[in-house]
Amino acid sequence: MAQVSGELTAAPESTTVVVIGAGPAGMTVANLLMRCGIDCVVLERRTREYVAQRQRAGIVETRAVRMFDSWGLADRVLGGVPYDGILELRVDGESHLVSDSDGSEGLPARLCPQQILVQKLTATFLADGGDLRFEAADVSLHDLAGDRPTVRYRTADGLPHTITCAFVAGCDGDHGISRAAVPDGVLTAHAVDHGIGWLTVLADAPPPAHPLLAVSPDGFAAHFPRGPHTSRYYLQCPPDDHPDAWTDTRVWNALRTRLADPALTPGPITDREIFRLRSLVHDPMQYGRLFLVGDAAHIVSPMGGKGMNLALYDADLFVRAVRDHVRDQDDTALRDYSRSCLRRVWNDQEFSHWLTRTLHDAGDDTDSGSFHRGLARARLDRLFTSPTAARAFAELMTGPDLTGTT
Ligand code: RFL
User: Fold this and answer.
1) SS3 breakdown of the chain: % helix, strand, coil, rounded to 5?
2) What homologous superfamily does CATH list for 2-83+106-189+280-365?
3) Residues with beta carbon inside 6 Å of ligand 1?
């Protein structure tokens, strides 16, 4: 403890990497650094309980499962059950099963809800002696363009802390402080608002046999497993709609109609919100010694389930690059970090955008018009009849291997 300008402050600290944010990106970075024997401090502004309960993604895709496996972590950090790779696309009540598996050897994707992954990553890091500090307030970044950046924050009881480091991993999502610390004019934001809203509902209701995406003249709907007795549902709605306008009765009636399933079993709704579908890429994903990882750098429309999985992929690339720097004094991968990540990001953005447009335009054509409806229906027809189109779809869902092809 020391006194600076009359104020009590903790003794200055030093580490190799300060990780901002304990979501999927931050906790993956932290665990992988630990596997490399590289020290880090994780700062998270929320409580452990809050972070552990945040429910979003539901599938850890094949390439991410294999990434954790390559680090010897798959058994410890992945919960849920293996995913058989079958996705149901229901168009005007007609069911089509498409494969989400590219047929490659190795571990399959997992039905592992995001909060389970985060809980397990957190428990693994702490069990291995990791330094994770919850309720870190007023985090701020300094000297990012120099050799030793500084990170300042306050503990819950107000005590100021200062940590110097070699690198900062900005894993604090779209509304964090990391990206905001980059001077104006350094990053370019490429953004699109799809003009579409989704009501998302979490309910204690039986999950579907397969993840289900449905096209109907009343709009898009989806039904995903989120545990043995839990489901997440999506209903297309105007982006400025209000969740209170969606009573339980209206939700279940709309789902029965759009999913063409009059016998759909309802259950208590535990969460209900509306969000706009948007996509966003920041380029580059780096400034000086700050590296943006996951949602801090890019937002993917949830269609196609890519957002969390991209965060895991960024984390893997970042840690490999830091390892090369620390172990071999080789900065090639650090210099290439942004370019390498952005190849994958744009690839997944393209797939997600294609699927978003196809499954919305093919149904309610009020906004898109009948011509775009015809195009979207043709794409679905091709997917259901052409083995080549089906294989390309499976590869995009799995996540194509873009390594070694630059
Ligand atoms: P997160 O999960 O937002 O975690 C950021 C963490 O940083 C903390 N933080 C701070 N900590 C310290 N100081 C500050 N100033 C801080 N500011 C923020 C936050 O408290 C938090 O703990 O970002 P991360 O780690 O990059 O992970 C990204 C994923 O969460 C996101 O991409 C996915 O949830 C997106 N997503 C989906 N992705 C998939 O792969 N498949 C899906 O099926 C899927 N479904 C979804 C989704 C996102 C959704 N929302 C958010 C619209 C469904 C929904 C409804």
Assistant:
1) 35, 25, 35
2) FAD/NAD(P)-binding domain (3.50.50.60)
3) 20-26, 43-46, 51, 56-58, 114, 136, 139, 171-173, 176-177, 200, 275, 294-295, 302, 305-309, 311
